[in-house]
Amino acid sequence: MSIRRVTRFIVPAALCAGMLFLPDGPARAQGAPPAGTTPAEMVATYNTLADAILAVKRTEANLVRSILGAAYAHARGQVEHARQAIKTNDAKGSQAALENLAAAVAQLGTEGDSAVGAVRKRLLEGGHHHNADGEAKGIYDEGYVVVTRAAKQAFLDSSKAFGALSRTPKTDVLEAEWGKVEATWAGLMK
After folding, report:
1. Half-sphere exposure (CA, 13 Å, Cβ side) for 103?
2. CA distance 95 to 109
């Protein structure tokens, strides 16, 4: 559920709930806030709503980091498979491992596979932009949460390089390209 949809429901509900706490006559007049002042109960409820909205944003960032962590772990496994296959001159094995590595690194660049992309699209259609300021400054592509444009390009370039390497596997090229992926990953996870 997008933050806008949540706030469309929660804010009116919170305001209505806050209305229940308003003084309703002369018996409570002494405790009533001055005219033009928002009752403390309503401010407290709005504060709680703000906490919930911000927690959802932190949760989204943590979830995307988990998705990326899984893709990175898969990529590391494929690097190991490729190393072993190249070492033993297993052409089919190295080709498969390098193609799988290319796919995993591409998922790092796109913050997940097409299923995750569909969720991101849905959030954008609902008006949710996790990094709206970063998007406006050209740091993030629309809807991206963790991966910057620069990191995305670096991962996608490495993905292409691994795909090309699958045709003529070489350990030194694999290690050099994997070093680039590790450096980009370390920069994102600071």
Report:
1. 11
2. 21
- Dist CA 32 CA 99 (whole Å): 69
Backbone angles phi, psi at 145, to 5 degrees: -105, -45
pLDDT at 28: 47
Q: What number of other Cβ atoms are within 10 A of residue 97's Cβ? A: 25
User: What is the model's pLDDT at position 59?
Assistant: 95
Rounded Cα–Cα distance for residues 97 and 91 (Å): 10
Q: What sign results for the dihedral spanned by CA atoms 50, 54, 59, 60?
A: positive
Q: List the chain residues with pLDDT less than 50.
A: 1, 6-7, 9, 14-29
pLDDT by residue (tens digit) across 75-115? Answer: 999 999 999 999 999 999 999 999 999 999 999 999 999 99
Contacts of 170 (CB under 8 A, 6+ apart): 86
CA distance 51 to 47: 6
Element (H, E) at 58: helix 40-87
Instruction: Give pLDDT, residue 31.
Output: 62
Are 159 and 147 within 8 A, CB to CB? no
d(CA 162, CA 5): 41
